[in-house]
Amino acid sequence: MKKLNYRPFVVIGGLLLAWQFALGDGSVVSDTLAPPGPVFLALGRMILDGTALHASYETLTAALLGLLLGGGIGTLIGIVSGMMKPLALAIRGPVEVLRPLPAIALVPLMTIAFGLGLPMEVYVVAFAVFWPSIILTQHAVRNVEAQLMEVASVLELSRIASIQKIVLPAIVPRLVVMLRFTAAIALLIAVTVELVSNPRGLGHEMMVASESFVPDRMLAFLIVITAIGWCLNWTMLRAEHYVTSSAQAFPE
Amino acid sequence: MAALAFKTTDYPVLPIAPPIEPIIRFEKVCFSYRALTVMSDVSFSINPGTISCVIGPSGCGKTTVLRLVGGFLQATSGAVFISGALRTRPTRDVAVVFQDYGRALLPWRDVYGNVSLALEAAHVPRAERKARIESMLELVGLENHARKFPAQLSGGMQQRLQIARCLAQNPTILLMDEPFGALDAMTRGTLQDELLRIQEERGVTVLFVTHDLEEALYLGNQVVALSANPGRVSRLVDVTLPFPRSQLTTREHPEFLQLRRELFGLTHGHEG
Q1: Does residue B22 contact residue B47 with C-beta atoms inside 8 Å?
Q2: What fold, for A39-246?
Q3: Contacts of B95 in chain A (CB under 8 A)
């Protein structure tokens, strides 16, 4: 049994105590901040009545669908353009122009086009993860050992077969790292779209709580979002670790 | 060689053997990269079923010779022919054993899977693969390591694996780019002997690039000595040392020693 590292808990406990003492003796009533006690009560309540789960489900659905759509198409374009230099040169201009555009700035446009709701949020998330997916995949493909590509040409592997048998397995470790980055972006953008306008999910619940001056509920949602972000990152790190250790054979 | 048999009824018997069509032929090949002339007016030919070694100082275009035969490069002028056909692109019947075995194997596939790649590429039916992979592994002495990954093998074993994969593609020509250069002397000697054995067994034509003159003389039926700046053929030598060759007696054979002395200056440039 591994010995538990207690230090982070000491720090977290200390912060909670400081938080409690800063505003927690009951004499101060704030519209913007709440002491930890009521926040955790609110958290317990929203877990029990299902709001936390429902809101998380809505946010995660949008984030994952957007990730699937934008990341999927982006990865595909990245692989193909990584293998065909003319195509990479052709798309470089548009990519460089559109990539710096903040995805959130598309919310008004997407709202006019698709109305509020799930699809609009999915498209904004997809746009945000699309560009990094293209660029990172392209980079990964270009980093495939040149000699392996020569082996593919000596064996006269078809383009499809060399993608399937050589390129894809070779870039898996880099794709997993990419997924960790893009998944974080997807969650960030989904919550932001909900905060800005979309009436669904964790971001919206938080905004409502904030606008109706219920700070404990607002902070409880913040804790839920943090927990989800943390779980996501942990899962991706495990996946990364699994891929790099099971392919025992990656030199470097 | 049934195709070369003469019908004695129609023709008078020739007093000399009919000429064998060379399997590799360089015809006045020049190769330039940007403004640099790497190779100038190189002509030689190689007969099927032989081992030819290309030697020369660095910068003489040894590797360029191999890449031209491999179909990775095209001659700037002149032409490279394989079995009479102009060489334009890599094909399966010319296998390449790269020096850097670590970069030429699939690290995510085990020994068995790496050999399998060549059969998959040749569309060999699944049912036939197992037996062919096993016989390849036996040929190179890896039959007890089929489930290991390249990273779990020593350098010599990885190079054996690469040779097995190349033979699995059933090539008529085996190109080897300093394949044993990165290995220790003991392993190198063993693999040289294994190569001679395998070549005899399979009858494949071997074009072997090395900077090691003794290795070239030990392995070759023919040695193509190149000189540098730009690369030219400085000597074409037929090595008539008897087979089977042996690390002890061949290396002490008078012909070996004489050729070594003659060619030493060519390969070592001004140092010689």
Answers
A1: yes
A2: MetI-like fold (1.10.3720)
A3: 154
